[in-house]
C-alpha cells in the first residue's frame, strides 16, 4: 500500500501499524507526535492503529524556535 | 526582601525571563545560553521530523524538557485552524498543556492577526489548553484575550526579530495596569536595556530569542538579559524617583565654605 508521510509517498507492506512504521523509520515514539488523516494518534494507540492505503501521516517533533 | 516569584497558570517560577530556542549556531550553544540566562521556560517550535537525515541532533537531547518547561509555539501559523492543529500535536508530543499561541498576519511584519488569535484562544481554552498569547500592544484586544481566559498576555515590544526595543511604552503600561494575569513583553527586545525597560513598566516577564541568539557572544548576552530582567524588576518594585525639570543638588547647600 501507499501512504504519505510528511509529504513524501512511501510504499509499505500491509498490514502495518503506526508502531511498525516508527520502528522502520528509526523514530523513538517518546520524542514525537503523529497525526493520521488530520486526527491525532495518541501514543497509547500507536500499536493498535492500523495504516490503510492512502493514509496521510504527519510525524512531528520539537525543534528550536522563538 | 520577600520572595518575588511569578505564577503562570498555577505554576510558580523564579526567573522572569523566557527564552526562545531558535537561530542558535547549534543546540549546544543554545543549551549554554539557556543555562546562563537562568530561564526556567523555553519556547519551542513543532516541525516535521526529518525522515532522510535521522542522525540530525534533537533539541530534547540538549535542552532537556525535564529541566526546562517547554512552551510550544505556533510560529509560522497564519490561521486559527493551523495554530490549533499545531498545538494539539505539541500536546501529544510533550504531554503538557501550557502553550504559546501566535497567529500571524503578514510575512514582512510578522504582526499578529488579532481576530484569528482571539478565535484560536477561545477554542484552545475550551479544549483544555493554558494559553499564553502573543498579541499586539492594543489594550482593547489584550482585555478581550484575558476575558476569554488566556493565562498570560504577551504584547510585542516591536516586530519579531527586529531588536528595535519597546516602541510603545504607553500601551504596554496600559495593558499592565488593567491585566489580572501576567503580562510579558514578547518580541522586539534587542539588548539588555530593552528588557529592563519592559520590567520597569511593570511587566511580569520578558520573552526573547534573537537578542541572545544573534549577539556576537550569545552566552554573555544571555547573562546580561538575566541581570537586566532582575534589575528592571527590582527598580519597578523599588519605585523610581520623580522626574524633575531642573537640577537638584545631592550634597547639602548648608555649611558651604
UniProtKB/TrEMBL annotation, chain A:
- Annotated organism of origin: Aquisalinus luteolus
Entry-linked InterPro entries: Beta-grasp_dom_sf (IPR012675), Mopterin_synth/thiamin_S_b (IPR016155), Thi_S (IPR010035), ThiS/MoaD-like (IPR003749)
UniProt protein name: Thiamine biosynthesis protein ThiS
UniProtKB/TrEMBL annotation, chain B:
In which residues is 1-deoxy-D-xylulose 5-phosphate bound? 161, 187-188, 209-210
Q: Which InterPro entries match?
A: Aldolase_TIM, Thiazole_synthase_ThiG, ThiG
Q: Which GO terms describe its biological process?
A: thiamine diphosphate biosynthetic process
Q: Give the catalytic activity.
A: [ThiS sulfur-carrier protein]-C-terminal-Gly-aminoethanethioate + 2-iminoacetate + 1-deoxy-D-xylulose 5-phosphate = [ThiS sulfur-carrier protein]-C-terminal Gly-Gly + 2-[(2R,5Z)-2-carboxy-4-methylthiazol-5(2H)-ylidene]ethyl phosphate + 2 H2O + H(+)
Per UniProt, subcellular location reads as: Cytoplasm
Q: Which CDD domains match?
A: ThiG
GO CC list:
cytoplasm
Q: Which residues are named in the active-site annotation?
A: 100
- Record bears the keyword Cell division: no
- What binding partners and quaternary form does the record give? Homotetramer. Forms heterodimers with either ThiH or ThiS.
Q: What is this protein called?
A: Thiazole synthase
What gene name does this entry carry? thiG
